[in-house]
Amino acid sequence: MKFMLMIWSNPENWDALPPADRAALAGDAVAEHAAIDADLLRSGELVISAALADPITSRAVRVRDGVVTSTDGPYAEAKEYLAGYYLVDCESVDRAVEIAARIPDARWERVEVRAAMDVAGLEM
């Protein structure tokens, strides 16, 4: 089954951490993500992983009555944003949760695990 492991971030939570903790977490996180990628590639479970650019670079696209509109940036009221993701193909949700728990961001934010669905609406 495929699972999307979505890494959520809230700058307020990050800013609330003591500077020494932020520095340690940031430095360790790069190495930990690289190790997770390597392990998942070796096991054949990694489909893709990526960090996402700052939400200020995003565009929101809507089509209403055939008219396309595109606006800059995220919603002002949103505090949390999607910071990155892993798409994994593993045996069970339990295994997906095990992988998500290794993601360093789970220690100060949250990683959401969601089953991916195919076009027929069935879990992959």
Quick overview of this protein structure:
With 124 residues, the protein is α+β, with helices and mostly antiparallel strands. It has helices at residues 11-16, 19-43, 93-102; strands spanning 2-9, 46-51, 59-64, 67-72, 81-89, 110-115.
| Lateral arrangement of strands in the main beta sheet | 2-5-1-6
Spell out the helices and strands N to C: EHHEEEEHE
**Uncertain runs with pLDDT below 50, 5 residues or more?**
none
| Proportion in β-strands | 25-35%
* Rg for CA atoms: 17 Å
**Quick one: CATH class?**
Alpha Beta
Tally the helices. Answer: 3
Provide mean pLDDT, rounded: 89
Assembly state: single chain
Measured between the Cα atoms of the first and last residue, the distance is 5 Å
Please name the CATH architecture. Answer: 2-Layer Sandwich
Overall description:
The chain has 124 residues and is of the alpha+beta class. The chain has helices spanning 11-16, 19-43, 93-102, and strands spanning 2-9, 46-51, 59-64, 67-72, 81-89, 110-115. A four-stranded antiparallel sheet has the order 2-5-1-6. Strands 3-4 form a two-stranded antiparallel sheet. A hairpin with a 2-residue loop joins strand 3 and strand 4. This is YCII-related domain-containing protein. Residues 1-114 form the YCII-related domain. Belongs to the YciI family.
